[in-house]
């Protein structure tokens, strides 16, 4: 680590948060300019919805969503119209603040007139989405998948998807949302940073059990139940590629303004965290994209009130060490020389 920068050029620069951590004129940087801004909830929603308007069947992996406060009247009108045409439709919506992370500020509502919604959106822009009420359950629990995707270059577009990811579980058995259980975050929200505070959270030394498991262990279970794993993977790959295609035009604008063509400059690569939810029928749905997925391979354990220590997490280690190792192999500048 070079806290004050280093004078000699490096092959690979590994930044903490964003492309603009330092002035770099050569080598490869593990961040794209503009990526952090582009995958926030509102810009991501805008980019995917633009593509949904153009190619509705290709982009049907993203839940119906509205941007607040600007589309609040549209949200109210569309929900009313859909309810009028289908009185049996009893939707639930999930509200996600634009800049929120780790489950911060997310809540569920049953109706656009919900007082929490009308009170908070003026001060805090957010995306409101139709909540997926029929997720695939394992051990009666809802879970999501964190997949690691390496965007190796924008031109030509090169994308690699890690073969294994993490499955992050809720800590209370799932029930479809009702007015009574809407606020039960441990049942509805899969965020690790929320569920870790639940008394039911299980830190496991095995990759097949506990509140965080490998995605491959879930695939094994699905396969043993007769699920078509090849089709599932192909749907996930398609979702990842189409999402990145939706972001590419804006990313190129950011890239060209920071690294103009023909001028010497670094090239970029970036590991993204894709959060995906499987529906009961095994259709993958995109929840969000994370520009700075956590690469920690340990978790904090409370020894006594207020006293924590870091304990290795075998599941994180198994998945993340491979992600970083293979990323460095793929961007290895020595490869060309060999």
Q: Approximately how much beta-strand content do the residues carry?
A: 15-25%
Detail the poorly predicted runs: none
**Overall tally of structural domains:** 2
The rounded Rg comes to 21 Å
CATH topology descriptor of the largest domain: D-amino Acid Aminotransferase, Chain A, domain 1
Tell me the major beta sheet.
7 strands, antiparallel
N- to C-terminal distance: 27 Å
List the helices and strands and how they pair.
Blueprint: E1 12-13, E2 28-29, H1 35-38, H2 41-54, E3 65-68, H3 72-85, E4 93-97, E5 107-109, H4 115-120, E6 126-130, E7 137-138, E8 141-153, E9 158-161, E10 166-169, H5 185-188, H6 192-195, E11 212-214, H7 215-224, H8 229-258, E12 267-268, E13 270-278, E14 284-290, E15 298-304, E16 307-312, H9 314-330, H10 334-337
Parallel strand pairs: 1-2, 2-12
Antiparallel strand pairs: 3-6, 4-5, 4-6, 7-8, 8-9, 8-10, 8-13, 10-11, 13-14, 15-16
